[in-house]
Please model this.
Amino acid sequence: MKIGIVGLGLIGGSLGLDLRSQGHHIIGISRQEETCKIALEKGIADESSTKLEALSNAEIILVCTPIAAIAKTIKQIIPYINPETIITDVGSVKYHIVESCSKLWQNFIGGHPMAGTAESGINAAIPNLFTGAAYVFTPTKESKPENVEKLKAIALDLIAVPHVCDAKIHDRAVSYISHLPVMVSASLIKACLQKQPDTLQLAQILASSGFRDTSRVGGGNAELGVMMAKYNRSELLRSLYSYRDNLDGIIDLIEKENWQYLEEILTNNGEVRPNFLN
Ligand code: NAP
Model:
């Protein structure tokens, strides 16, 4: 299949690597000649260009730009493609994007591969990023079922697990498991920096796997974090308030030295955590 990828950063580049290795013909589009060159050298694309005309024969186009640029990019692509071309995006929020982009292109279906790293740009692209990860699609009532099936097949080629749901429900769910963790992790790093210099220095020396795990998403792509907050504001606030209530509850237990109930919470958490990770 001829697949266009617009925006050759971490996600666009990683998609190119894996889809190309599955035999798809990848047309990579970047705003920069240098990135086009790297895309060919790294095996991310079969052909690469800064010109949107190169997408004229693409059957599916994956828009992999930052969230704020997705609708604008689709508007720019439209004059060069045929009416049957399926456009999807990879943005981490869906409702806002689906609302605006479905109006621009009738064969638009929102998408979100649920995998990433703390890096960004084409040099951060890695193979097998999506293996075993969920890949969400958020069609509307007007979306053609055969288009959804074609996108699900792309997800399966990535060894990802396709999942179809409503855009609003997607945004509510990811606010808890993806966007909230970014803000919690960011707050953790910020809290650590507020220590006395000698304590801070020792903390930096002692920090190990626990801190690496809990701080990873708070120390990643800042632009992406702001976009999550801006475009999923109400759901993120809802999850942050819920988190704050739970944190206050834990503070209260510690202040009251209610070790038994604290242990019950931690024990229960240990039991339910695998439900999120399998
Ligand atoms: P990234 O590494 O920064 O890549 C984004 C690419 O988009 C850039 O490399 C650039 O490519 C292009 N771009 C940047 N600004 C642009 C603009 N104003 N107009 C048009 N193109 C622009 O970011 P990413 O992590 O791959 O994120 C891309 C998308 O994936 C976002 O929508 C994000 O929500 C979604 N996503 C991210 C993750 C994650 O964990 N990082 C996970 C799932 C989904 P060129 O220089 O080649 O033009």
